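Attaching the record inline, Q. Sequence:
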Amino acid sequence: MGDVGTVSLKPPPSRARVWWLATRPATLAASVSPVLAGTAIAVHDHAVRTLPGLGALVVAIAMQIGVNYANDYSDYVRGADARRVGPLRAASSGVVPPEHVKRAAIAAFSVAAVVGVAVSLVTDWRLLVVGALAVGEGAGAERFMLNAGGSSAKMLARFPAGSRSHADDVSPKSR
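Structure, as predicted:
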C-alpha cells in the first residue's frame, strides 16, 4: 500500500492469503510449544498416547487461531484498525466480510471445544473442569480485552490460574 496521494500497483491479496494472515502464523508457535513440551515429558516417561496428544495439538492450534480471529474482529468493531500500520487484518481489509471473521472465530473455538471434550473423556474427566474454568475466566477477561486489548488478555483467557500479570511482580514499581 502506498502513501496518501500515491497509487499502488500491487494487487490486493487473495482471500486465501488474507485468511492465512488472519491466523497470525507467527503466533502459532505459542500454541504448539506447550504441547511439544508435554509430549517430551510423555516420551521421557514412556507414556506417549498418540491420539490424545494429537487432539491436544488440535485444541491448542484451534484456540490460538480462534483468539486471533476474535481479536481481528473485535479490533474492527472498535475501529482499532482504521489507521493500521503493520500486517493486514482480515475484517478491516475489505476482502473478507467482518461477520465471516466472527463466524470463523466461533468455528475455531467450537473445534477446540469438541476435540477438547473428546480428549478429556479419553484421558481424565477432570480436564473438563479445567476447561470449564478456563472458559469462565476467558469470559471475564473479555472486558479487559475490549478495554485494554493486547496479549495480556489473551494470556488471562488461556491460563486461568493467574488473575494478574507476572510482569506486575518484576515491574520497576515493585522493586
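The radius of gyration is 19 Å. The helical segments are 15-22, 28-44, 50-78, 90-93, 98-123, 126-148, 151-158, 167-170.

More tomorrow.
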